Amino acid sequence: MPLSEAEADLARISSRQRSDHSLDRLAHIAEGAEVSVSLVVNGLFFYGDIAPPRAWAERFDEAMETGLRGAEARMAAQGESAEGNPIFQAIRSNPLSEIAEAGFRERVDLPGGVESATGGKADWEIGELPDELARRVIANEAPYPVVTLRNAEIAVPGGPTAEVGTIRVLTHHVAAWWLGRPGPSR
Q1: Which one-letter DSSP state was computed for residue 172?
Q2: Domain residue spans in the chain?
Q3: pTM of the model
Q4: pLDDT of res. 91
């Protein structure tokens, strides 16, 4: 199906409304480097190490598996079997970490597809791309609307700090940010 005029218009509008993607870029390279940041979000301070999006997915998968094991134990205590349960099988066969990895690979591979389709032009337009590639570009325009922090803490100004582990923050809620964490040990 050809790219509709509305899809092309939305892509053009989106390309002109990009904001500071520095946090996005840090998240993109977080795979091999530990980068600590401090964020101001709705008047609270968030401190943590930027992590790739799959770090959150892995924690989610662990929590789901813990929940499934608990449900299986409760079923066994009632004399029921969870063996072959289609809901349990569906959850276990579609881990969020694999979905996140596929999305990450898509974002990594996409620029090569665009470069190939445009002959390496830097100032290409969405209409120059094959329809399917254009749709993939549109879908990935904001690849990291969320930043994932590991070893995260949240602090109320002048108040206590709470360790929260792994957390995701919508980047459009970040009012300010800087590299590093406060305190002499960091």
Answers
A1: G
A2: 5-179
A3: 0.58
A4: 86
